[in-house]
């Protein structure tokens, strides 16, 4: 890996069984619209900066939602508790309170989305 591109993650996909429901969930919880595309299967892209790692919700795929697979942590801006407050209203489940990480790393929390995926949230702030 070169110093010019030291990202470990280049892209991620969160599977859905009900694509529209999943997209509405993430748009509501994160407070940002997602851009929908179709590459032979529907995808909805998370908003990200040019240099940031990107990802999407994907529908019509052989990937299956899971609570026991790879953990993806989404940016919980402006703070973890603000984002957590939107989860249940959007149809998801909060899996405990925010946890402060050591060394000024910030806060994390865990949720289950409408599809059954376990997702992590991260923010420098707790609200």
Automatic annotation (TrEMBL):
- One Pfam family linked to the record: Glyoxalase
* Ranges where the VOC domain occurs: 8-124
Q: Which CDD domains does this one have?
A: SgaA_N_like (cd07247)
Top-rank lineage group of the source organism: Bacteria
Q: Which PANTHER family match?
A: GLYOXALASE-RELATED (PTHR33993), VOC DOMAIN-CONTAINING PROTEIN (PTHR33993:SF2)
Identify this protein by name.
VOC domain-containing protein
Organism listed in the record: Paraburkholderia sartisoli
């Amino acid at each position: 890996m070169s110093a010019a591109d030291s990202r470990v993650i280049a892209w991620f996909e969160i599977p859905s069984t009900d694509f529209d429901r999943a997209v509405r969930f993430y748009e509501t919880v994160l407070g940002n619209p997602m851009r929908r595309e179709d590459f032979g299967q529907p995808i909805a892209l998370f908003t990200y900066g040019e240099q940031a790692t990107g990802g999407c919700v994907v529908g019509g795929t052989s990937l299956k939602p899971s609570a026991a697979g790879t953990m993806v942590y989404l940016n919980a801006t402006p703070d973890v508790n603000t984002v957590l407050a939107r989860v249940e209203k959007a149809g998801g489940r909060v899996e405990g309170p925010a946890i402060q990480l050591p060394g000024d790393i910030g806060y994390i929390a865990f949720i289950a989305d409408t599809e059954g995926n376990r997702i992590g949230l991260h923010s420098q702030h707790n609200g």
